[in-house]
Amino acid sequence: MTAIEIFLKKFAEQFDETESTVFRPETLFKENEAWDSMTALSVIAMADENYGVILTGDDVRHAKTIQDVFDAITSKMSHS
Hints:
The protein is mainly alpha-helical. The chain contains four helices and no strands. The chain is globular and about 35 Å long. The model has no long low-confidence stretch (mean pLDDT about 95).
């Protein structure tokens, strides 16, 4: 599994009612009906727990695709 595939799996786990197969790097995740502030917090917690990275609310707000979130995490990992 590639790093993005592993991330997609972890990202999909934050959406209880959504099939993981709908998530791809280019997915506009905020258009998912299950996306809400609690899911955003879950994604932030997942980034911290799995990658040791603190995503900010702005990081999530500015991200449009799952790839954008992944890129924000990897960017912060390379700067730490």
